[in-house]
Amino acid sequence: MTATGSSPASCAEPNTKEAPGSDTDIEKFAAAEAHLRNTTVHNISWQGVTVTVKDRETGLPKTLVDNVHGLVKAGEICALMGPSGSGKTTLLNYLASRPTHARSATGSVHLDGAPPPSRAAFRALSCFVEQEDALLGALTVRETLSFSARLSSSTGAGLVGSRGKREVEARIDGLLDAFGLREQADALVGTPLRKGISGGQKRRLGVASQLITSPKVMFLDEPTSGLDSAAGWEVVSFLRGVAKRNNLIVIASIHQPSTSTFNLFDKLLLMSHGKTHYFGPVSAVTPHYESLGHRMPLQVNPAEFLLELVNTDFAVRRESAVQHLDEMQLAWTGSSTAMELTAALAAADGNSSGGIEPDAAGKKPSFLSLVLTLLHRSFVKSYRDVVVYAIRLAMYTGLAIMAGTVWLRLSATQSSIQPFINSIFYGSAFMSFMAVAYTPAYIEDYMQYIKEKRNGLYGATAMMVSNFLVGIPYLFIFALVFSSISYWLTNFQPTAQAFFTWVLWVFLDLLAAESLVVLLSSLFPSFVIALALIAFANGLWMCVNGFMVPPDELNVFYKYVFHYWDYQKYVFENMMVNEFSERVYTCATTVTGCQCMWQTDLADQCLIRGQGILDEYGYQPGYMGKDVGIMMGIVFGYRLVAWIVLKLKE
Ligand SMILES: Nc1ncnc2c1ncn2[C@@H]1O[C@H](COP(=O)(O)OP(=O)(O)OP(=O)(O)O)[C@@H](O)[C@H]1O
After folding, report:
1. What span, in angstroms and rounded, lies between the C-alpha atoms of 259 and 273?
2. Residues 27, 32, 38, CA angle at the centre, nearest 5°?
3. Is 89's C-beta closer than 6 angstroms to any atom of ligand 1?
4. Own/partner pairs for 419-426, CB < 8 Å, 24+ apart?
5. What is the CA(87)–ligand 1 centre distance, in A?
6. Which of 286, 323, 368, 483 is the residue whose CA sits 20 to 30 A from 258?
7. Where is this region: Disordered (predicted)?
């Protein structure tokens, strides 16, 4: 194993730092990185990888990756490079055993010359770092690693149970040091409202959090995209250090690395139009092209030079450019480097020691332990990230003050009856509507879930259960705060029982509204689309809940298609029953005598029995238990469909 961290050459990059991976580094990190050491997988090889999709436009087969071979040994870091659309991500997904959305995908991927015993075994031995690695902004750097360890399907959780917390802490400290994040350990990752660590540090944290599960093979999709050259160099340099010290295999697609970042890689797979144009040592790529008559000018970034050579997108005369590209590709297949690769592949297959099984050390955490860890993580996020609940609490408090002061101290007279009804409708509908503010926080959790699901950490059930449970106390607090202010200011029926019944219905309203947000945001995890759909759904529920058009008047389509499973119907109906079923209102007295707008059995006493108002809507008391059951059913239904959506997206 060599330790040759290159120093950066360009002046835009830190030239005082040395890339980790030196002999002193190996000693320094020996103990802290013991868990990362790869003694199991000696190489990964792939042969004849061909991925074909159904062309979106023509419907005809389109080959994205065409008969690609390669071999990367333990301790090597390989760059997958090529112009945009050359098939890098597709190949990376195929190698990492992830979905490629292909019509057909063929070819073999071997570990130490033999196919892995199963997809699950391969995944346990490897990890994939996404291009936009989702991190939770409200967690600190150390917490991010700690939760990854606790959720991890291999070693992390096993350690928490068996070898203890200290061992996990030691691993986390080791990773913080290895990725230069020790000083940021207690810094927040960063939310839109609270600045956190830099983009490069986030990327390093994303890589480190995948390493906590001790993978032997790492796949990274453009780990430097969106970073400046200095930050990009640091990411690859730290990665190289860890790979060298621990004999890991690293394969990373990379867009346009700077010279010094490019030189950190040991091997290069250069692709264009899905085909291999070069696979071999980085140091031999310029000689290869020189032998084809393409001398690299001095002072030119080799990566840029190579990308320009194999890119036909901007060619003035495209046909001749494509023809020239084909000739270069043909020249590669006949080159000595290609022959060496063929021989190395044959040797690797010849030395096969049978399928490699992942270490048995790590146990999968139990479902309960996963849910508790997710609850803990969501709880930390809930009180630290104001977007999750604090802003909503402020909003609901503002809404309560506004509603309470607009409908201020209504009296039990007939002129207050319509304002009472309006207030009931407005409060319940608006509370539901404002649940839309939960969308960004949920989409962040969703993205995190997708990433962690792909890495085999936990599934849809653990996600849905923990998400549901963590919201309950907050929603109850919202309901209590909103009701405590608006109920008494408005002067709804002033009894404790009526008040707590009211709180219950506001709580159920919020529970259903948040479940609707979860469902629609799971279906369309894009803020704008989810927002539009949630607003539309709320608009629909408001129209058909019985306030705008009394249920008996509602046309049959809306009544039978939407009204009965509109959760706002049950909230509105029960709040109306709560206010009117046991209250009596005075009629107006004029010079001509008593004038009652609602005629009830109390008209001769110049009073209106509240039930008379309920009769107009067809509402009767005594159905609260049943209606609570229906509300729970609707909440459960939303969650169930959201769970199915998450399952299908797996
Ligand atoms: N079903 C499809 N029909 C047509 N083209 C497709 C289809 N699926 C993928 N492609 C195209 O195939 C090409 C290969 O995609 P891939 O993401 O693997 O390339 P890439 O080299 O990683 O590109 P980039 O560097 O831009 O991420 C892209 O141009 C993509 O748009």
Report:
1. 24
2. 85
3. yes
4. 420/490, 420/492, 420/579, 420/580, 421/547, 421/576, 421/613, 423/486, 423/490, 423/492, 424/547, 424/572, 424/575, 424/576, 424/579, 425/542, 425/545, 425/547, 425/572
5. 6
6. 323
7. 1-23
- Looking at residue 529, the DSSP 8-state letter turns out to be H
For residue 112, the CA-to-ligand 1 centroid distance in Å is: 30
Q: Tell me, what amino acid is at 360?
A: A
Q: Give 211-258 as a DSSP string.
A: HTT--SEEEEE-TTTTS-HHHHHHHHHHHHHHHHHHT-EEEEEESS--
Spatial contact of 33 and 246, defined as CB atoms under 8 Å apart? yes
| Domains present along the chain, CATH in parentheses | 23-350 (3.40.50.300), 367-580+622-649 (no CATH)
pTM: 0.81
What are the backbone angles phi and psi of residue 184, rounded to the nearest 5°?
Answer: -100, 10
Cα–chain center distance at 350:
42
Vertex 301 angle, CA 300 and 306, to 5°: 100
Q: Walk along the chain (650 residues) in steps of 10 and give the mean pLDDT of each run.
A: 39 43 59 79 93 88 93 96 92 88 87 84 86 84 91 53 69 87 92 86 90 89 88 92 93 92 95 94 92 87 91 75 87 90 87 65 76 94 85 93 96 96 95 94 92 85 95 96 97 96 98 97 96 96 93 91 94 97 93 91 95 95 97 97 91
Helix (H) or strand (E) run with residue 589 in it = strand 588-590
Give φ, ψ of 594 to 5 degrees.
-85, 135
